[in-house]
Design a protein that fits this description.
By secondary structure, the chain is mostly helical. Helices cover about 55% and strands about 5% of the residues. It folds into 2 domains: about 5-210, no CATH class; about 215-275. It has helices at about 5-35, 50-65, 75-90, 90-95, 100-115, 125-130, 135-150, 160-165, 175-185, 190-195, 200-210, 225-230, and strands at about 215, 265-270. The relative contact order is 0.13. The structure holds iron/sulfur cluster (2 copies). One of its GO terms (molecular function) is iron-sulfur cluster binding.
Length: about 280
């Protein structure tokens, strides 16, 4: 195991950057309402910088040309950027950018310290597999309810919004409860919200089927040690695949030859036929 890993370090730095940026924007938005302006930082609300707002607004945009309440055009532009990233690299937004994913990962580090090798292996496969499709049901419910009511149906239980507003009166109790459950579950399971409930993760997961760059395994050099399987936070079995198209992959690169796989150039994120 390499002591300093450039890929690992870069991903952590990117995650901390976006976590800090969203926190700063959230604080700035609250200060603006009190008449205090932080130069340079946007005063936009979290709803307007969340690409998921673009997903739930698409129906009302197509049918009556309007955004649902609290959503504006920036979210659709952000959604476009994130989808382009997804077509290139798969669900990279979840693994590198989403601050809620980052915070779950940080809580998970404590879980790993407590449970060691048992961490992230508590839920039997036969229950775990179907549970992972739950997020598509959540997605369907959010899009339907938002289109039906014209309001952001998800905002009252949104843990992402609660994470950056729990100290204000703007946050609903439902959001605080879901956030608390997510933190608690993160002590046992890596990224529980991403795996089982996140409606935006459900959308992003679909890009894994079509992405140009994918995790690809060279079977001619693989020694079947299964270190890739054990390193995957999303419990994907990689060692028997030629390429990873699983909708749960978050493009974190933890399994690759640059981090966990002990054989050089055997497990890499690359294009089909790429070096
Ligand atoms: S470890 Fe590999 S397969 Fe698992 S989520 Fe990360 S990139 Fe995807
Ligand atoms: S870690 Fe690398 S060598 Fe080991 S099973 Fe996975 S791809 Fe093969």
């Amino acid at each position: 195991m390499k002591m300093f890993n450039k890929k690992k370090f870069t991903r952590t730095a990117v995650q901390i950057f976006f976590l800090s940026l969203v926190l700063l924007i959230s604080i700035s938005h609250q200060l603006v309402e009190k008449g205090i302006i932080i130069p340079i930082i946007s005063s936009a609300s979290l709803h307007s910088i969340c690409p998921f707002g673009g997903v739930v607004s698409i129906y009302s945009l197509v049918t009556d040309g309007n955004f649902v309440q609290k959503i504006h055009e920036a979210t659709v532009i952000l959604l476009g950027i994130v989808i382009i990233l997804g077509i290139l690299f798969g669900s990279v937004f979840c693994g590198w950018i989403c601050p809620l994913g980052t915070v779950q990962e940080f809580v998970g580090k404590l879980g790993k310290k407590i449970f060691k090798n048992r961490y992230n292996k508590f839920i039997p496969y036969k229950y775990d597999k179907p549970l992972r499709n739950l997020r598509y049901i959540v997605l369907g419910w959010v899009v339907f309810m938002t289109a039906y009511t014209g309001k952001l149906a998800f905002s009252d239980i949104d843990p992402y919004y609660a994470l950056f507003n729990f100290w204000t009166s703007e946050v609903a109790i439902g959001g605080i409860i879901v956030l608390s459950i997510t933190f608690l579950a993160s002590l046992f399971v890596e990224r529980p919200w991403c795996k089982y409930a996140c409606p935006f993760g459900a959308v992003m997961g679909l890009t894994n089927f079509i992405s140009i760059f994918k995790i690809r395994r060279k079977s001619s050099t693989c020694v079947d040690c299964k270190k890739c399987d054990n390193s995957c936070p999303m419990n994907i079995e990689i060692s028997d695949k030629k390429q990873v198209t699983n909708h749960q992959c978050i493009s974190c690169l933890k399994c690759t030859s640059e981090i966990s796989c002990p054989i050089d150039d055997t497990l890499m994120m690359k294009t089909k036929g790429g070096k």
